[in-house]
Write a sequence for this structure.
């Protein structure tokens, strides 16, 4: 535990001192003493401070601050934080937030002195937001307008505060009653509704903006457009507000409440998002609804129909449906975008083989099929998002393989293919003559890769030319007079990058599955977001350097935390805290769940990384962390009805003692016996004297 | 009970008896005679000794044709034998007043054909989407004549092999190479030998009760349906079922008073949820009774009753009917009790003395006034008489022995290879579910067919392989639309075999046969266990129209009164013994865990908070894994921090089918940078107090794109 942490801390500082001779804040480091080392807040805040030495400025005098404000004008907003002492919880919260937002806002840290305004009693930590970006041109004051955060300092509150600074005014077209309460972490923030009339729309917007500015950080302002029929509030009102629930005030309370309310809060992120958006149904005008009745006619109408099979109650389906509609709106007319509600057209979605439907029963939702008249359906196998789908459809529009026999065709093909990552060519230098088995294999491959890869079949003049041009990169696939060749050609934009990526890929959310499927251990470099060309080059150099560490056993790859912010918590989870960047780790070893960290103090050069890897293999390195458990038990307890029933009606749930299970209509017998007995004095009200 | 059983058993075909002994409807006799002549010619042509079939279906009513369809679709060697010249002969006569009370709801607001069968009680199952009763009638309560028309179209369009005019008078079983086969003998002494006999003869023998004077009673099967014939008459109807009320309703406007008598009080279908009880469509008499008109209901056991004839002289009645010979005498029927009868030697005399009448003993006796007619409307029973002792199923222990007793998969007790279908199979769910009615037994016929396919042809029950991350959606889909478990609530249910990463989904299994699931279905139960999805009504007796009739809080779903889905989780198949000793009123034994989905007014169980999430958590408990959906980003995190991400990520994200957060395009479109920063914020801030505590959990709902809503 502790010795390791200390070591790590000191190492990182060493690195920092070594790297940043121009550091303006050596004093800060000198000022921390050993007492604070053995404190997690102190460790985290100091490490982050070291990492963010460029991002977080340290200001001692008001003049310094003014200079900072001037330089930030029109460019960026400033987050000004005051912490009473370093290495505290407050300091850590601020630094953690800076770690997240430093690319967006300029962070400045003060520790008291003349910078603090007179009215501040300087007993507790404070944060101000200086609105420099939007008020760049304003001559009225030298200083940027500022907003003070009124809550006590914590990472969560700070996060919420910064979010609020960006979302002062929103416009809605529904009644305030149907506007959902603000989302976490703003659930405590009151909402103010102003009603706008069509006649005074611009004026209303202006005054609402002004008010939003006044209420920034205190309330969320919503402008309600009255012309919308969904607005039901009576005309006599021009404003409304909603205060949020008192009992959620304290963060501690919230935790407690969660314990009991987990029954009534959606815990599934996709379902929660969809539920959140339930008031605004997507506009489905741009897509055709396919039904059992119109299916064949609609497919026949268009050369390419993209059909989404969805279930209304499936959150992933509904989430994807909105992306699907976005794609439909972006696409031109030659592709028919359509959807099948499988909750309604169950016979179409589940059509058994043998029926005249060109696909097998749909068993996974959502599913996307590409349907062409008189052809079997092609299943879309990509990400369930708009971007990937759009790309796939665009590529699918081109025939696969496309026959190219003139130079003009080749040129236009390449132009169209410009934004694609991979092009597949078959080159037939000699168009006539031998029937090659390679052709049908290629055609098959091209067909099944349609949408993912663009493929062209070159013949005639250009084929001969290309053959000469790319002799070295051509893959021979057929033995038939050596005529057929395949060329894998990355598209122009990515050509250089792609080449590099083949050896040292950058892991992203999209491509991780492909690399994980290799089943190799990952030698993973985490690179932070660079704010200048120098930084970029530095990262680049590191990645280049790592290319020298190619081994069969490991996949050498890297994550850019700016482009893939999800990598941040990965790193944190690996090591238990945030290490200085760049950080190199070895994980997903076939031998065990251990994670090894390359010594942060050692410069990342191929030879020493290889030595380190050898040490890991020899078992002389100690792991820095472990992978999490593979079992994913339910995150929440299920509601045990049997237990509840046992408690409330104990007898009703127990198995019976073995008896004759002869079914006798007890009631019938009872009634009959009563009635057949002779009771002369029976009351007439029953009409049952017999 | 035992005496009754004996009486019924004696109706089975005696070894020396001929097929002519069988009761035959007088008006059907001429039918048969006619077709007999017609078919003599054809049978001469193919009279070639015994005909052999794998399957013989006895009767071309709804159940017979339904089974015929399944056999035909599976291309089995089968024949449907029908004594009449067309299908559904019962419906040519019954109901006597020619209106079906099985609903034919054409407009449901839905296009889902499976869902719509929940509200179509007459159509049979087929793969022809338009082969529904609505084609012959658009009425909510269709005329009875529409039904044989529909059945004819069904048989014809599906090209079912039906042989009409074959009146099987004797059924016997003989040993055969495969164990046992059944030999059916028709009216021309031709034999049909079948490996499997599917009895779908329905219920058509009028149920009778023996008592003194029961010969003076008219039967529902032969009464006049012309209300004029009841003008100003006092009518006593025996029975309080739908046929009794249907009769009462038709004479209400012409009879002077209508009394209805049976041992038990009226049971209203809308209270008992049993469609065999009195339907509101027939219950006008309850209205007139309680609104002090001259009609009424009385409870008494018929066996203790005496109906006696008494001639009254010189009294004028308004009725036009006269006894033969134009006497001024009116025949009157008196009701009295066995115990008031004086000892008389001549049993033939149905006349009764004044002191034998109840009014003599109790001056306010309800039934002291005489009746012009007494009508028996006690329903129908199975015709046991054609079965040789070797092939005769015993009488059911319930329903006064009116049905043949069958096992959990409708095979006759002691008659392997003989299955009972249709109305006659109702002993399994008598007064509990819909197995005695078309909208119920069409599904049990399908289940029996699957049993046959498995047993005789080695075909396992159809099943769908569903990945476990899709299971929730599948269950919701079935709960939202499936008509079989909906109509045959507590009798048919879906069985889900858990297999880890995937499941085997078996639809509409016979719940009572669950202990024999593996052998009947051909699917093994793995160590992961199984889930059964069934539909149930609440078990408490409540005021069906009272204030507290509906439950809306999902945590109190087990107290739902209306039809709602219930899921049972077992680690292993329940045993026969556990099945027998199951908790009172439960369709299945006590499971490992149970989940009730709260009743829903619209029968749409797709509320994210009330229905879906509690169900998902139950499933998570059963499969012991997190079944939530995650965005690609969360999957990315968990795939890198664990060797395996959660199931949803394994089956989606890792197969390159990740779900990126969609950015709903709104004006103004948020700039890419702002969005990325917001996301980074969402990803980077969890855990204000410990270093980086739960990387995955809080990344979801709480920190979601809700922040971006305000852009």
């Amino acid at each position: 535990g502790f010795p390791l942490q200390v070591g790590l801390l000191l190492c990182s500082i060493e690195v920092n001192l070594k790297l940043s001779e121009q550091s303006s804040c050596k004093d800060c480091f000198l000022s921390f003493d050993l007492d604070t080392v053995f404190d997690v807040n102190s460790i985290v805040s100091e490490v982050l401070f070291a990492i963010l030495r460029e991002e977080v400025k340290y200001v001692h005098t008001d003049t310094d601050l003014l200079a900072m404000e001037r330089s930030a004008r029109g460019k960026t907003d400033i987050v000004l934080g005051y912490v009473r002492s370093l290495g505290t919880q407050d300091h850590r919260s601020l630094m953690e937030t800076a770690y997240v937002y430093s690319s967006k806002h300029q962070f400045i840290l003060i520790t008291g002195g003349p910078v603090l305004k007179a009215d501040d009693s300087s007993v507790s930590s404070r944060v101000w937001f200086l609105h420099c970006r939007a008020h760049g041109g304003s001559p009225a004051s030298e200083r940027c307008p500022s907003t003070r955060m009124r809550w006590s300092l914590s990472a969560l509150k700070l996060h919420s505060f910064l979010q609020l600074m960006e979302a002062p005014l929103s416009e809605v077209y529904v009644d305030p009653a149907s506007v959902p309460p603000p989302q976490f972490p703003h659930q405590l923030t009151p909402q103010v509704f102003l009603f706008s009339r069509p006649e005074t729309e611009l004026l209303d917007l202006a005054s609402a903006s002004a008010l939003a500015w006044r209420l920034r950080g205190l309330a969320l302002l919503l402008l309600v457009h009255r012309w919308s029929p969904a607005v039901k509030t009576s005309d006599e009102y021009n404003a409304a507000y909603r205060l949020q629930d008192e009992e959620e005030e304290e963060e501690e309370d919230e935790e407690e409440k969660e314990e009991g309310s987990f029954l009534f809060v959606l815990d599934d992120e996709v379902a929660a998002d969809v539920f959140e958006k339930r008031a605004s149904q997507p506009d489905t005008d741009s897509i055709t609804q396919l039904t059992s009745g119109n299916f064949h006619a609609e497919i026949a109408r268009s050369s390419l129909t993209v059909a989404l099979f969805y279930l209304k109650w499936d959150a992933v389906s509904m989430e994807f449906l909105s992306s699907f509609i976005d794609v439909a709106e972006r696409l031109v007319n030659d592709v028919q975008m359509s959807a099948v509600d499988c909750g309604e057209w169950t016979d179409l979605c589940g059509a058994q083989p043998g029926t005249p439907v060109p696909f097998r029963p749909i068993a996974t939702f959502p599913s996307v099929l590409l349907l062409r008249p008189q052809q079997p359906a092609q299943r879309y196998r990509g990400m369930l998002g708009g971007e990937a789908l759009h790309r796939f459809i665009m590529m699918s529009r081109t025939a696969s393989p496309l026959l190219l026999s003139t130079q003009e065709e080749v040129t236009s093909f390449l132009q169209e293919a410009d934004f694609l990552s991979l092009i597949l060519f078959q080159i037939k230098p000699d168009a006539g003559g031998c029937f090659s088995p390679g052709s049908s294999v290629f055609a098959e491959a091209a067909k099944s890769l349609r949408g993912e890869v663009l493929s062209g079949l070159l013949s005639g003049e250009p084929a001969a030319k290309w053959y000469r041009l790319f002799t070295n990169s051509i893959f021979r696939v057929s033995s038939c007079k050596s005529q057929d060749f395949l060329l894998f050609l990355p598209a122009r934009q990515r050509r250089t990058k792609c080449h590099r990526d083949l050896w040292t890929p950058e892991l992203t959310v999209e491509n991780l599955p492909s690399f994980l499927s290799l089943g190799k251990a990952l030698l993973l470099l985490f690179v932070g977001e660079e704010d200048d060309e120098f930084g970029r080059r530095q990262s680049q150099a590191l990645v280049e350097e790592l290319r020298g560490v190619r081994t069969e056993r490991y996949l050498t790859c890297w994550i850019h935390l700016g482009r893939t912010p999800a990598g941040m918590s990965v790193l944190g989870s690996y090591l238990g805290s945030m290490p200085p960047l760049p950080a190199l780790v070895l994980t997903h070893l076939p031998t065990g769940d251990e994670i090894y960290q390359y010594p942060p103090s050692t410069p990342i050069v191929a030879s020493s990384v290889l030595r380190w890897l050898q040490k890991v293999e020899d078992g002389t390195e100690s792991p820095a962390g472990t992978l999490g458990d593979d079992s994913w038990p339910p995150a929440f307890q299920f509601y045990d009805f049997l237990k509840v029933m046992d408690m409330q009606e104990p007898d009703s749930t127990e198995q019976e003692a073995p008896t004759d299970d002869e079914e006798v209509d007890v009631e019938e017998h009872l009634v009959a016996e009563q009635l057949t007995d002779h009771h002369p004095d029976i009351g007439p009200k029953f009409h049952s004297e017999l | 009970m035992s005496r009754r059983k004996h009486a019924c058993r004696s109706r089975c075909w005696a070894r020396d008896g001929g097929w002519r002994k069988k009761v035959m409807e007088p008006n059907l006799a001429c039918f048969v005679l006619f077709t007999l002549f017609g078919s003599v010619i054809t049978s001469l042509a193919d009279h070639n000794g015994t005909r052999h079939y794998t399957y013989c279906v006895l009767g071309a009513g709804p159940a017979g044709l339904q089974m015929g369809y399944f056999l035909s679709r599976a291309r089995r060697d089968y024949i449907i034998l029908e004594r009449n010249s067309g299908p559904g002969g019962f419906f040519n006569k019954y109901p006597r007043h020619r209106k079906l009370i099985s609903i034919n709801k054409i407009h449901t607001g839905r296009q889902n054909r499976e869902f719509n069968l929940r509200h179509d009680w007459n159509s049979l199952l087929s793969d022809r989407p338009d082969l529904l009763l609505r084609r012959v009638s658009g009425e909510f309560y269709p005329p009875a004549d529409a039904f044989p028309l529909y059945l004819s179209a069904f048989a014809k369009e599906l090209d079912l092999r039906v042989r009409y005019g074959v009146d099987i008078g004797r059924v016997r079983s003989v040993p055969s190479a495969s164990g046992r086969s059944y030999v059916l003998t028709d009216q021309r002494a031709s034999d049909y030998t079948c490996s499997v006999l599917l009895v779908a003869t329905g219920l058509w023998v009028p149920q009778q009760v023996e008592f003194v004077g029961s010969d003076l009673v008219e039967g529902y099967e032969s009464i006049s349906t012309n209300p004029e014939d009841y003008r100003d008459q006092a009518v006593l109807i025996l029975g309080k079922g739908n046929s009794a009320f249907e009769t009462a309703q038709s004479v209400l406007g012409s009879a002077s008073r209508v009394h209805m008598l049976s041992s038990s009080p009226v049971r209203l279908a809308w209270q008992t949820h049993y469609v065999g009880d009195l339907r509101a469509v027939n219950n006008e008499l309850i209205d007139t009774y309680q609104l002090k008109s001259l009609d009424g209901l009385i409870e008494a056991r018929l066996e203790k009753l005496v109906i006696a004839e008494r001639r009254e002289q010189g009294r004028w009645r308004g009725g036009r009917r006269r006894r033969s010979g134009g006497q001024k005498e009116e025949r009157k029927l008196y009701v009295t009790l066995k115990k008031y009868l004086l000892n008389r030697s001549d049993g033939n005399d149905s006349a009764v003395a004044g002191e034998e009448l109840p009014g003599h003993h109790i001056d306010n006796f309800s039934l002291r006034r005489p009746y012009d007619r007494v009508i028996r409307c006690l329903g129908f029973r199975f015709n046991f008489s054609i079965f040789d002792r070797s092939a005769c199923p015993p009488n059911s222990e319930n329903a006064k022995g009116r049905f043949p007793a069958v096992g959990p998969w409708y095979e006759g007790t002691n008659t392997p290879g003989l299955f009972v279908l249709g109305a006659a199979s109702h002993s399994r769910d008598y007064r509990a579910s819909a197995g005695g009615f078309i909208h119920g037994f069409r599904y049990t016929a399908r289940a029996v067919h699957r049993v046959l396919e498995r047993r005789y042809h080695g075909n396992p029950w159809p099943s769908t392989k569903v990945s476990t991350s899709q299971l929730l959606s599948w269950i919701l889909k079935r709960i939202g639309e499936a008509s079989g478990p909906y109509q045959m609530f507590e009798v048919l249910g879906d069985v889900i075999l858990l297999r880890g990463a995937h499941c085997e989904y078996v639809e509409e299994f016979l719940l009572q046969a669950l202990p024999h699931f593996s052998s009947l279905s051909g699917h093994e139960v793995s160590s992961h266990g199984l889930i059964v999805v069934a539909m149930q009504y609440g078990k408490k007796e409540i005021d069906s129209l009272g204030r507290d009739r509906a439950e809306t809080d999902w945590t109190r779903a087990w107290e739902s009164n209306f039809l709602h889905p219930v899921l049972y989780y077992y680690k292993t198949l329940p045993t026969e013994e556990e099945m027998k000793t199951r908790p009172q009123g439960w369709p299945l034994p006590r499971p490992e865990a149970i989940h009730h989905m709260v009743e829903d007014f619209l029968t749409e169980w797709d509320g994210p908070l009330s229905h879906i999430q509690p169900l998902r958590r139950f499933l998570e408990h059963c499969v012991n894994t997190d079944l939530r959906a995650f965005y690609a980003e969360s999957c990315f995190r968990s795939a890198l921090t664990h060797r395996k991400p959660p199931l949803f990520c394994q089956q989606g994200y890792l197969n390159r089918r990740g779900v990126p957060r969609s950015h709903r395009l709104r004006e103004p479109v948020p700039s890419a940078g702002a969005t990325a920063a917001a996301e980074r914020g969402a990803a980077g801030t969890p855990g204000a107090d410990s270093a980086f505590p739960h990387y995955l959990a809080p990344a979801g709902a709480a920190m979601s794109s809700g922040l971006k809503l305000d852009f």
Remarks:
- The mean pLDDT of chain A is 74.
- Chain A touches chain B through 141 residues (CB under 8 Å).
- The longest helix of chain A spans residues 2-19.
